[in-house]
Amino acid sequence: MNPARTTRQAAALIVDDDPSTTAAHVKRLEDEGYRVTKAGDAASALNLIKQSTPDIIFVHIGRGGSGSTKFIQALRSNDLTRNIRVALLSSYYDRSLERLGFTAQEAW
């Protein structure tokens, strides 16, 4: 391995208002090699993104998901954030999310 060559660690942002599930997700992401930043809500997430753009954003979406979908729409409407990959963390799937371009995967 060439010591002059460094590999950048992928940056992930997790947006979840539940501290216990956030901790579990953070551990898993760190175990997979991500550098993880946490936000408890959409406003905090948007502020963090202004400071440092993540490679991927993991968003917990609960039943109804209106706050999360508005956050995702805000990301998609901004030239600086529209191309950041977004993964939804949820225990259910609502077909209305397909309008935002999301598809379901059974397990992460």
Describe the structure.
The protein is of the alpha/beta class and 108 residues long. Helix content is 31%, strand content 19%. It has one domain (11-95): Rossmann fold (3-Layer(aba) Sandwich), CATH 3.40.50. The protein has 3 helices and 4 strands; from the N terminus they run E-H-E-H-E-H-E. It has a 4-stranded parallel β-sheet with strand order 2-1-3-4, with helices on both faces. The chain starts with 10 loop residues before the first strand and ends in a 19-residue tail after the last strand. The mean pLDDT is 83.
Q: Which sequence of strands runs across the widest sheet?
A: 2-1-3-4
Which percent band covers the strand fraction?
Answer: 15-25%
Q: Structural class per helix/strand content?
A: alpha/beta
Mean pLDDT: 83
- Radius of gyration based on Cα positions: 15 Å
Q: Give the name of the CATH architecture.
A: 3-Layer(aba) Sandwich
Estimate the global geometry from the Cα principal axes.
Answer: globular
Task: Please give a quick description of this structure.
Helix content is 31%, strand content 19%. By secondary structure, it is α/β, with parallel strands linked by helices. It has one domain (11-95): Rossmann fold (3-Layer(aba) Sandwich), CATH 3.40.50.2300.
